Amino acid sequence: MKKQDFIKAVAKQADVSQATANDCFDAVVDTITKALKKGDKLTFVGFGTFSVKKRAARQGRNPRTGETIQIKAAKIPSFKAGKALKDAVN
After folding, report:
1. The pTM is what?
2. Which end of the chain is more exposed for a tag (fewer CB within 10 A), N or C?
3. By C-alpha distance, which of 58, 80, 62, 82 is closest to 70?
4. How far is C-alpha 55 from the geometric centre of its chain's CA atoms?
């Protein structure tokens, strides 16, 4: 499902225009992004938890040359599905 398909489905289910659904979707994504950028953890009971994890620096290989390279440490966004979401999918 692409973003536009998702927006249409939300608009239909919420009985709002697609423009309103798109604005709401953009606001939700923006809010989650800002919270994660600050280092906050977002928990939606039954749906899941968004958080930021730290990945340590490590060595890797350039696949083209085989040369060893240093990969910098990084923060990565993470999502862990909640029980209700897992049960709904299974």
Report:
1. 0.79
2. C
3. 58
4. 17
